[in-house]
Amino acid sequence: MTMYAKDDIRSQLAAPPPPATAVDPSTPIKPSQWIAFHDTEPTEVSAAGSRTWIARAANLVIAYSDAKAGDVFTRTGQPDEYAVLMYSESAPVRVIAGGSVADVAEEAFVVVPPGDSTIEVVADGPLIRVFSTVDEVLRDSALNAQAYAEPDRRAAPLEPWPDPVGGFALRVYPLADTPIAEGRFGRIFRTTTLMVNFLAEEPQPRDEHKLSPHHHDDFEQISFGVKGRFVHHIRYPWGPDSAAWRADEHREIGTPSICIIPPPTVHTTQGVGPHQQLLDIFSPPREDFSASGWVLNADDYPSK
């Protein structure tokens, strides 16, 4: 079910491929998850005072930090690449990895290669890192780890896409190089394991008469609110067991926060604050977005 308006560019997307494995209609649907980071105790607090919250989805782990200047976030023997999501309020950082150094003090998508890496925080501010679930310790440290004690049997498993052209390396993609443009949905980047869409900052509430309810057959959507307030609208389809039916959800949440939207629920998100920004994250990368030509670093990261 897709209800994009004709003037919504997503109405031009080709139909996604059918799920690789057919799902019995009686397969349970995971409940949505709503995590407002500042409303929960942090997962860890560093000696310098940085507070970090770690949450997971089926195939990825998000580490959100209120980072303090001078703090250093280290990964030793990281088994695969990870990403740093930089928006307008993010802490400026120096990233050291793969024999390279990058100073980043602007909106950007940063890909950090496997192996050892450090992120040095230059000034106070938010720091967002996104990992796959390959690292067991990181995965199990998530504040919502128990939600995945039983895997989501409706979500596609994590199967990495092809390695980047020229091999794994520290890569920085400034958003200023690819501003929001007509004929393209947001600013989409991918790695071998995930895809991120930096949606535009909205200077007013979203028009309640122009929402975009849609569903995904077999992958989660992680909607990360970094500015403002949002109402996530979620409708659960009915299966044969009426005892498992759930009521529609229309819940408001502040930021920083994530809403984990399970397949195959119908969903749409409505910004209700005077100014807001949302980042949408998917793992594995979306095939329909990849086929659209909207992925801005596709030259570096081939489709599968």
Task: Describe it.
By secondary structure, the protein is mainly beta. The chain has one domain (9-291): Jelly Rolls. The chain has helices at 136-140, 287-291, and strands spanning 33-36, 44-45, 51-56, 60-67, 72-78, 82-86, 93-97, 100-104, 108-112, 115-121, 125-132, 171-174, 188-190, 195-198, 221-227, 230-235, 249-253, 257-261, 266-271, 277-282. The strands form 4 sheets. It has a 7-stranded antiparallel sheet with strand order 2-3-4-11-6-9-12, with no helix packed on it. A 6-stranded antiparallel sheet has the order 1-18-15-20-14-13, with no helix packed on it. A hairpin with a 4-residue loop joins β13 and β14 (195-198).
Descriptors:
single chain, 20 strands, 7-stranded antiparallel beta sheet, Jelly Rolls, 304 residues, mainly beta
Give me the Rg, rounded: 19 Å
Mean model confidence by pLDDT? 94
Low-confidence stretches are none
Task: Estimate what percentage of residues fall within beta strands.
Answer: 35-45%
Corresponding CATH architecture = Sandwich
Structure summarized in a few sentences:
The chain is mainly beta and 304 residues long. The protein has one domain: Jelly Rolls, CATH 2.60.120.10.
Strand-helix topology:
Layout: E1 33-36, E2 44-45, E3 51-56, E4 60-67, E5 72-78, E6 82-86, E7 93-97, E8 100-104, E9 108-112, E10 115-121, E11 125-132, H1 136-140, E12 171-174, E13 188-190, E14 195-198, E15 221-227, E16 230-235, E17 249-253, E18 257-261, E19 266-271, E20 277-282, H2 287-291
Antiparallel strand pairs: 1-18, 2-3, 3-4, 4-11, 5-10, 6-9, 6-11, 7-8, 7-10, 9-12, 13-14, 14-20, 15-18, 15-20, 16-17, 16-19
